[in-house]
Design brief:
Chains A, B: Its cofactor is Zn(2+). Chains A, B: Zinc phosphodiesterase, which displays some tRNA 3'-processing endonuclease activity. Probably involved in tRNA maturation, by removing a 3'-trailer from precursor tRNA. The structure is a homodimer of 303-residue chains. Chain A has 303 residues and is α/β, with parallel strands linked by helices. Chain A contains ten helices and 16 strands. Chain A folds into two domains: 255 residues, Metallo-beta-lactamase, Chain A (4-Layer Sandwich); 41 residues, no CATH class. A seven-stranded mixed beta sheet of chain A has the order 6-5-4-3-2-1-16. The longest helix of chain A has 14 residues.
Chain lengths: 303, 303
């Protein structure tokens, strides 16, 4: 159980023969959430043996082609595979405007519904919530409206200490209350504090996805203390001017955001295709924030 | 020199982790022609080290997603690479209708023009011609309007036999006439027959591409005697009913077309993703037409 993220693509706009455009899949206790969907995502999902049918939600950071061109093929394949459950796509309103005619033309008679949810890219928003997980957006600064995503597990229940509950003869009906932290008051009188009967709840983890942006103080605030931060690092520091001009970040800048936000771990990605060897970007980031990893395609990171 | 075809993808609609959707690139003496453009084509072009900038013409057989979803990404990458020469896309009229808005949205300010040429899918048509090559369409029978493509080198000039021309003191200005087959009449009188001064022209080769169709007598006529025929073979014979119903062909039917048309070599492709091992399809086709090969991705076939 817990959350992991599998990198499907981590290159910037021009794919290379080795690296695909952006896509990641988050596995939250068996529920799969797709983040961005560059060209070739469906092939990458297959290569990484992700169960297609378990993806019900797709989150699109912004409308540059390298983050969305995999959607028509993915939707088409869902149709061919006989999917019936709704597919929810979260993105700015233009995504529906530009994608709907393509779906309608190429995937007539889909056996499932494609439901678009419009993101307001100017504000922080809670865009998804279930019993265990919340997904919120936050604005970043790119050439076009772009958002980051913050995935946060909800607080979990305390674990029952079975041995101690047996000893105190706790009735079954009381267990849900114990999990919520209440003490036990036996019918025969007395008082057993919750901490005697339960173990602490497992930690609730968080993951922030932040691509195609200049480094931002506002992002530092939003991602404060997350367990894992994916931050774009399109260039190295010697191209800081180009990074600024194109609304991107350098590896060092990504690391500074991670440091200032006090995150536990940093993944860097969205590399310019000029870099064949990525180790210099990793070194640059690690000088500032040692617990950095390359978002290598095909690798699953436990959060 | 000569013509070769490199297979970029040869799977049917559902890509597998091993096989990409349809795309091929024809190399005619250094000019590249792209045939169909399934998702991932730009990555496959890179993996096969095809010089992007040399593709000026793209031919699209029909508007099913697995034959076109690679176009937006390819066009976008052409733009990022600073392409300036026009890109010509040949397809049915709907292709422009559905693709133009996507290009306009995602690739504003392209440094080159995308020129659409509308194919009439109901008739044979000469759709491209240069000094050395002709490309014609022919109708096939699928669920939606679909065409095949016939690439044919024009007749070539005879080769100069330098030694003999020296011996007969042929002036330089006469050589172009000799190449066209004329005899040599020296100013001093006399007559030297062309065959004494030249060698036969190299053969002009032909390639037919024929996907997403039932097997057709009309195709047999069109592809008669071509040097290489690519014919779809989505299924094996035990699925002949399904092939008919979905407007596809079996490996045996593809081989029969090749046999009846007297082609030199057959490539089969567009395989259903149900087939992990393709050798049974090859065996089935070879029983009817021995000179058959699998259109394996990454393989270049000299025509």
């Amino acid at each position: 159980m817990g959350i992991s993220v599998t990198i499907l693509g981590s290159n910037s706009a021009l794919p290379t023969s080795e690296r695909n455009p952006t896509a990641q899949v988050l596995n939250a206790s068996g529920r799969f959430f797709l983040i961005d969907c560059g060209e070739g995502t469906q092939m990458q999902l297959r290569r990484n043996r992700v169960h297609f049918g378990k993806i019900d939600h797709v989150f699109i950071s912004h409308l540059h082609g390298d983050h969305v061109f995999g959607l028509p093929g993915l939707i088409s394949s869902f149709g061919l595979l006989g999917r019936t459950n709704d597919l929810h796509i979260h993105g700015v309103a233009d995504l529906e405007m530009v994608l709907r005619p393509v779906i309608d033309y190429f995937s007539r008679e889909l056996p499932f519904k494609v439901v678009f949810h419009h993101i307001n890219p100017l504000e922080k928003e809670l865009i998804y919530e279930d019993a265990a997980l919340e997904v919120a957006t936050f604005p970043v600064e790119h050439r076009i409206p772009t958002v980051g995503f913050l995935f946060r597990e909800k607080p979990k229940e305390r674990k029952i200490n079975k041995q101690m509950c047996d000893f105190y003869e706790v009735p079954l009906r009381v267990l849900p209350k114990l999990k919520k932290g209440e003490d036990f008051i036996p019918d025969s009188g007395g008082h057993v504090p919750n901490t005697k009967l339960t173990l602490p709840a497992p930690p609730s983890v968080s993951y922030a996805f932040c691509t195609d942006t200049r480094p931002l103080p506002s992002v530092v605030e939003v991602v404060k203390g997350v367990d894992m931060l994916y931050h774009e690092a399109t260039f190295m520091s010697d191209q800081e001017g180009l990074a600024y001009k194109t609304f991107h970040s350098t590896a060092r800048q990504a690391a500074k955001v991670a440091l200032q936000a006090g995150v536990k771990k940093l993944l860097i990605g969205h590399f310019s295709s000029r870099y064949k060897d990525l180790s210099p970007l990793l070194s640059e980031a690690r000088e500032v924030f040692p617990d950095t990893e390359i978002a290598t395609e095909g690798v699953t990171f436990e959060i």
